[in-house]
Design brief:
Layout (H helix, E strand, L loop, with lengths): L41 H10 L46 H13 L1 H10 L9 H23 L1 E4 L3 E6 L5 E6 L5 E6 L1 H5 L2 E7 L7 E7 H11 L18 E7 L4 H6 L3 H17 L6 H12 L3 H28 L3 E7 L2 E8 L4 E7 L3 E9 H5 L2 E8 L14 E7 H11 L16 H28 L8 H19 L2 E5 L2 E6 L3 E8 L3 E7 L2 H6 L2 E7 L5 E7 L1 H11 L1 H4 L8
Antiparallel strand pairs: 1-2, 2-3, 4-5, 4-10, 5-6, 7-8, 8-9, 9-10, 11-12, 11-16, 12-13, 14-15, 15-16, 17-18, 18-19
Helix pairs in contact: 2-4, 3-4, 8-10, 9-10, 13-14
Pfam families: bPH_2
Protein name: PH domain-containing protein
Keywords: Membrane, Transmembrane, Transmembrane helix
Length: 584
């Protein structure tokens, strides 16, 4: 191609053609007199435009020819990405073929509700009258077919460096997680999976994105994948005998049946009970049975007074909700055990639970950074708490409510502290240490907030009353509520506390949800100090402790200046100590 200067270069650049024999008079070099060339030197304007540009960073991680480029974050490729998987000779594998049989049986079972309804109520019944059964059949058939299509379109492989999956029913999606970024491997199984000897494996990198899901593989393969992916050493290093890797287990906690009461008595009982009662009434109406009318007549005979009648109705609905919630709790937490497993390649904290659908979560002790107790206001008065571990790579919340960092169902605070002492690998008991009280100015700040809230609400209601949007006179309601606000302010103040004990930073705060956090000092990345206008006036500071685990940020609010300096020095002496000078 050396003799063809008019052809494009292999690097997609067009080769320069031969230089012009001469330059017309009055035109600078480079002016080809296109679209009315000017006598002025256009290159000066081009230099002016470039002067404001950001110079290319050749040390940028995405450097390509000296230009800043956008690179895809390792571990995830967006849908529709054109980036190809890395070249590797490891073959791609299908999910287990037994999943086809599972979905075929599921498809047949999905037809039963509508079929039995037509058989029981007669062929002349309109499908509109059988809408619950029709909806159940439609959803079941759709999910079964979609799962079969997903099996046909899914491939996965595990190399020495990556866990990869290719899937997508309509749009192809490629995802990968580097093996050195894997933080958790969970194994779940619904009833249909258990009956077929299958398991679902979730591989998480500890980020906010969903886990990579392998649905489904055999039980033996799931255990091998979990052990292989959670192993500290890379794949292919020294092989270990199976008897050497056999886990030695120590049970830390088991399910206590008294915990059912703690976990089902809440406002959801009324909502769930009302929904179930309405659903049952709708189904029985198909055979001309008026369930709600029958109950209403029975309650009227027992309690003619409207107040007692309403109370009995609420009791019936709540009792029905308690039965439903209790059944769900038993199903999800059957045979719950919190276990510490000891292997030659490390120790881990394991929870196993489930009746129809089993769930097993492994948490590497090497990534454990602390523990957290969470008590909403109602549960706090009942002496109950939720217990979660602070660990890298574990989600601290989930829409499904199944949080990987949770290690106990809701239980008494004393039991949670006992378990926490056994969970922390160093045997420390930071949650039982006495906490330092915060200055009285912290109480004043909360009282000021209560006063401002009452005054603002009263003024808003008075304005709305003047416009006729609400009845006049409602402005006094916030003023009447001020004593309750003041009591809540005192409760919030008494909840404050902090200390540093045995290598742990302990922080407690919160009104609607009291949080007590014990975080290892080695896990602290830095401190962030904040001060609002009111805090500045009262001489208070809010110190935020940042870490790579859990919620990433934990606050110790409303410290005095002396408490702030002491706390910062004890929490991070290597960061703060060099800036402090001894006094006295």
């Amino acid at each position: 191609m050396a003799d063809r200067p008019d052809l494009p270069h292999p690097e997609r650049r067009r080769r320069a053609g031969p230089a012009p024999a001469s330059v017309p008079a009055g035109h600078p070099p480079g002016d080809h007199r296109i679209a009315g060339g000017s006598d002025k030197d256009r290159r000066s304007r081009r230099r002016d435009r470039r002067a404001g540009r950001r110079r290319p960073r050749r040390d940028h991680s995405g450097h390509a020819g000296g230009r800043d480029v956008t690179t895809t974050e390792p571990g995830h490729l967006e849908k529709g990405s054109l980036q190809r998987p890395p070249e590797d000779n490891t073959p791609w594998q299908r999910l287990h073929g037994r999943l086809i049989l599972v979905n075929a049986v599921r498809l047949l079972l999905s037809l039963l509700p509508t079929g039995l309804s037509i058989l029981f109520f007669g062929g002349g019944t309109r499908l509109l009258d059988l809408w619950p059964a029709v909806i159940a059949t439609t959803v079941g058939v759709f999910l079964s077919i979609a799962d079969i299509v997903r099996w046909l379109r899914t491939r996965y492989r595990i190399t020495e460096e990556l866990v990869e999956i290719r899937t997508g029913r309509i749009q192809r999606v490629y995802r990968q997680i580097p093996r050195d970024r894997i933080r958790a491997v969970d194994v779940k199984a619904r009833l249909r999976h258990r009956l077929a000897g299958l398991r679902v494996v979730f591989v998480s990198s500890g980020r906010s994105r969903p886990s990579l899901r392998l649905d489904a593989v055999t039980k033996t393969m799931a255990e091998e994948l979990r052990r292989e992916l959670m192993r500290n050493s890379p794949a292919g290093e020294a092989e270990k005998e199976s008897d050497a890797l056999k886990a030695r287990e120590t049970v830390i906690a088991r399910l206590r049946w008294s915990w059912i009461f703690y976990n089902v008595v809440n406002i959801w009982g009324l909502l769930v009970g009302g929904f179930l009662l309405w659903s049952l009434d709708s189904m029985l109406n198909l055979i001309d049975v008026d369930l709600i009318g029958t109950l209403d007549r029975a309650i009227d005979r027992l309690a003619p007074d409207p107040v007692w009648s309403s109370a009995l109705w609420a009791g019936v609905v709540f009792l029905l909700g308690l039965v439903a919630l209790s059944s769900g709790f038993v199903k999800d937490n059957w045979d719950f055990r919190l276990i510490r497993t000891i292997r030659d390649d490390g120790t881990s904290l394991v929870t196993r639970q489930g009746l129809l659908s089993t769930r097993e979560i492994h948490r590497d002790d090497g990534r454990l950074r602390g523990i957290n107790l969470s008590q909403p206001l109602f549960w706090r008065w009942a002496g109950l708490t939720e217990t979660t571990v602070i660990s890298t790579g574990l989600a601290s919340w989930s829409l499904s409510g199944e949080v990987a960092s949770s290690i106990l169902p809701r239980c008494p605070v004393g039991e949670a502290r006992r378990v926490a002492a056994r969970v922390l690998p160093d045997g420390a008991r930071p949650l039982e240490a006495p906490l330092r009280a915060h200055p009285r100015a912290a109480l004043y700040r909360r009282l000021i907030r209560a006063v401002c809230t009452a005054v603002v609400l009263a003024g808003l209601l008075e304005w709305l009353g003047a416009t006729g949007a609400v009845p006049r006179g409602l402005w006094v309601v916030p003023l009447w509520a001020f004593p309750a606000m003041a009591v809540l302010a005192v409760i919030a103040y008494r909840a404050l506390g902090h200390t540093v004990v045995k290598g742990y930073i302990v922080m407690r705060c919160g009104l609607s949800r009291l949080r007590t956090t014990a975080l290892r000092r080695e896990a602290v990345l830095g401190l962030k100090v904040r001060q609002s206008l009111v805090q500045k006036w009262l001489g208070l500071f809010t110190v935020g402790v940042s870490t790579a685990a859990g919620e990433r940020f934990y606050d110790a609010p409303d410290l005095s200046a002396d408490q702030f300096m002491t706390f910062a020095n004890e929490a991070t002496p290597e960061l703060i100590g060099e800036f402090l000078e001894p006094t006295g």
